[in-house]
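Continuing the batch. This is chain 6 of the set; chains 1 through 5 are on the previous pages. Same settings as before, nothing changed between runs. Recording input and output for traceability.
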Amino acid sequence: MVEKTLKQDEIDALFQAARSSMPEGVKGDVRARILPYNFSSAGQISNDQLRAISMLNDLFARNLTHNLAAWLRSRFQVNLVSAEQIPFNEFLLRIPEISYAASVRLEPLGAISVLQLDLALAPPVIDLLLGGEGRDGPLRELTDIEESILGSVVEIICRELTAAWQPVGLSFNFERRQMQTQVARIMSVTEKTLCLSFEIRMPHSSGLLNLAFPAVVANTILRRLTSDWGRGRRHAGETRAQMEAAARRIRFGGALQLPTVRLAASVLENLEPGTVLRLDLPADTLAEWRVGGQALGRAQAVRQGAHRAARMERPAEEEGL
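Output for chain 6:
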């Protein structure tokens, strides 16, 4: 076999022939797809990532609403307002002059994030914890005692963040309060951060809870969330069917029992075979049918062939069980 080496003018002629044979419309489309790249847009949150972040933080907002409302014994509502990527210096500009800012360590990454809470929320929270009615007060710096009380609230926030962000394997550990001048040194002012904003509403006050994560944390959680979200969407139908099939094979302990009654110790002391115990219940009282400790309704004990059985009479919803 004889190899032929093309000369430069022959190579140029081949490229020229290829370009001339390309339709005009196709050549125009190729040029239209060539766009200048903007490096500042690198790492922007995609729609899938934003959806996954919103799901996790909606869960955090619901859990924090429930747990802090129970702890404070007052109405407490938390809602996710926004999730966005912004430079750290822009986040610093959003911090009011008088506010509560704290450093939070994220393990196992060992990174530091910033938590900022509007001080307008401090007076009602502190008032409730000290036995008051949760009235608001003037915007001012906290005393040492008040700062310690508010620190316990921040620890609860970190605990709920850890529970909500369990799918990405991060734990939030409250370190200490930081003054505004100290916050600016936690990260580079030009670093792109993931900023989450929550609105907190109380009966007599409202304010914002803001969280800023450094780029290393944002990239880690976004990568994990996106892969989990995509995998969940691709196999949602198959996974659900498998889970339902597995759940139907689970066995639960069940019991058909009468409501609890109180008996005198003397009655129990003199129990003998054949003794009839008076339970002080109406004769038509139906037994409760409980499965796994949960009341499913009222049922009647019956016989089915050689076995005992329970015939459902009324569901739990009608009985208020």
